[in-house]
Design a protein that fits this description.
The protein is α/β, with parallel strands linked by helices. The chain is 25% helix and 30% strand. The strands form 2 sheets. Strands 3-2-1-4-5-11-10 form a 7-stranded mixed beta sheet. Strands 6-7-8-9 form a 4-stranded antiparallel beta sheet, with no helix packed on it. The radius of gyration is 20 Å and the shape is globular. 34% of the residues are buried. The structure holds S-adenosylmethionine. S-adenosylmethionine binds next to strand 2.
């Protein structure tokens, strides 16, 4: 039996093509530049409100690092990389934002870390590592599936045999990581983050399920002024990340619901995944 297929009319086809073009370009926020989303403003205040999971992240990574060295992708201001280095293992980093690197270098011990300014999809370093890691959802800063796949492949080529690639990320659709920002995947939403007499912070988001891109903007209104802090993220479910790992010749060795080895369950809000060569 031949199934009959209803072809969409012209107007529907044009609308669909327009939507697809907007989505398939990878970045939907008009004028958004991912290389600026962690610029001077964000870098200057990034460490003002630590996430609170630093000690347990470092303890987890320290065990896997052995004698090192370790490589952190999207090292930022060194929130994790720096205390890991202080625990006695050499830590190198890759980071796109000069402003974030400057913050890192200004911290005690920061200048001793070797940080390459570049795209973590390329892993632009020489040498092999028993531990490569990317934390705090930073894998989602790569805005296409292609870039995320490339990142896995390049990580694999820098792992020593048996080496570990650790990835920590919020599960797509979690209302908020604990503690941390919210990653709602509603088609669109506005949430009141702070409401004070002289200061209001709104979290405005739009999710495109065809590209898995969440476009978010924090709108900070205070003293009669308004600031916008946009970011785009491409979410990938753990199963999609596992397939990327397999394409890169890695396999999933362990998956936890947090840095303390919490079980990964249907109620987990994030995952800490260990891939190995
Ligand atoms: C949420 S912060 C995490 C920083 C740090 N790992 C931490 O845990 O605090 C994300 C970082 O990813 C960096 N980043 C975003 N896209 C990147 C890319 N394609 N290559 C390298 N770094 C990138 C940003 O500049 C920012 O420093």
């Amino acid at each position: 039996m031949v199934n009959s297929v209803q072809l969409p009319n012209r107007r529907a086809r044009v609308a669909c093509a327009r939507t697809f073009r907007r989505g398939s370009g990878g970045i939907v926020i008009h004028g958004f530049d991912p290389f600026r989303s962690f610029g001077d403003d964000v870098a200057a205040t990034y460490d003002d409100s630590p996430r609170g999971d630093e000690a347990e992240s470092v303890a987890f990574l320290r065990q896997l690092a052995g004698d090192g060295p370790a490589l952190e992708l999207a090292i930022g201001t060194g929130r994790i990389g720096l205390p890991l280095a202080n625990s006695g293992v050499r830590v190198d980093g890759v980071e796109q934002s000069a402003a974030m690197i400057d913050q890192l270098k200004a911290k005690p011990g920061g200048a001793e870390l070797s940080v390459v300014q570049g795209d973590m999809a390329d892993v632009p370093v020489t040498g092999d590592y028993p531990l490569v890691f990317v934390v705090f959802n930073s894998i989602y800063n790569l805005l296409t599936q292609e870039a995320q796949i490339r990142c896995f492949a390049n990580v694999a080529s820098h792992l020593t045999p048996g080496g570990a690639f650790v990835l920590e990320a919020a599960l797509p659709g979690t209302d908020e990581t604990e503690p941390g920002p919210s990653y709602r995947l509603d088609q669109q939403y506005v949430a009141a983050e702070e409401v004070e007499a002289d200061r209001v912070v709104l979290d405005v988001g739009r999710y495109d399920q065809s590209t898995q891109l969440l476009n978010k903007c924090r709108v900070i209104i205070e003293s009669g002024q308004m600031r916008l802090s946009p970011i785009a993220l491409r979410f990938a479910a753990p199963a999609e990340l596992d397939l990327m790992a397999r394409l890169a010749g890695l396999h999933l060795d362990a998956r936890w619901g947090g840095w303390r080895g919490e079980a990964f369950t249907s109620t987990s809000r994030r995952h800490v995944s260990v891939y190995r060569r």
